[in-house]
Amino acid sequence: MESGNGGLLRWVYPGDVEAYKTNGIALVPLFVEIRTEKRDQGREGLRLCITGVVGPRSDGDAWGGCGQCVDELRGLRRLAAGWTAEQAARLREVWERWHLNDMRAGCEHQRAEPERWRMCPGHYLPLSQRVRFIDETDGSGLVHIARTRATIPANCEGQEETRILDAYIAGQFYEGSVRCSLDKLSQPCPVCGYRYGSSWLYEEVPSDVLAWLQALPDARGLVPTRWLRRS
Questions:
Q1: C-alpha–C-alpha distance, residues 227 and 224, integer Å
Q2: 98: domain range?
Q3: pTM metric for this prediction
Q4: Are the CB atoms for 221 and 12 separated by under 8 Å?
């Protein structure tokens, strides 16, 4: 089925997962919505959007999570009629690889080396563990910048110390982020010079991937009405 803007719109039902219901744990259906949308501001190409819902109810609520619940595909307890384990696995791969294909942090060269070009997995240090070493002010009293230094936590793969930037602007505190030595954010690509994470880049979804999604069994008739998008 096509949506109003000419893009793919399909609900699929790969199988059942466990969820907590009123009387305990039970199997409930996992539904996945697949759609393509026109990109913002008249940009060419289509954006692929894939979301899921665990046990949707007729009142608009759900017995489980909804949104980016791609991990639920790994925990299928029972396949739906007409589905194979291979199809469910490929749907998971397509979801993880192509969802929001117009929000790529890296260029084509950086995407070809995902283990090298990545952002820091994330870590946080309380202000009490940071060492302030430089203070700057613009003299107006409105802007005060404190550059601090902190040692990366043990759970991070990077070992170097990194500097972070904290600022007080008009009395409001803006906290900088701690990043490890392996973080490639803003680092230039040696081929084209694009700085990783400096923009959202578009990557076209291959036609064979879209065709495969279009060929999946449509389960729209099984989805509670309140969960169906108006198109």
A1: 6
A2: 9-102+202-227
A3: 0.72
A4: no
